[in-house]
Design brief:
64 residues; 434 Repressor (Amino-terminal Domain); globular
């Protein structure tokens, strides 16, 4: 699944580790989501949407 997580994280000047701390996951999890190797669980996708104050559809593209 394509996503815009890397861009959103960069816009906020957060490292992968800082974002991981905010979400309560490992830095490796953030990296795997950014590179498309891992699709987040629904609760994690909602956390990301809330953190970035964007609808899930603006972060993740199911067609990608």
């Amino acid at each position: 699944m394509k996503n815009h997580l890397r861009e959103l994280r960069a816009d906020n000047n957060w490292s992968q580790a800082a974002l991981a701390d905010e979400l309560g996951v490992s830095r490796q999890t953030v990296n795997a989501i950014e590179t498309g190797k891992y699709d987040p669980s629904l609760p994690l996708a909602f956390k990301l949407a809330q953190l970035f104050e964007k609808p899930i559809e603006e972060i993740f593209d199911a067609e990608g």
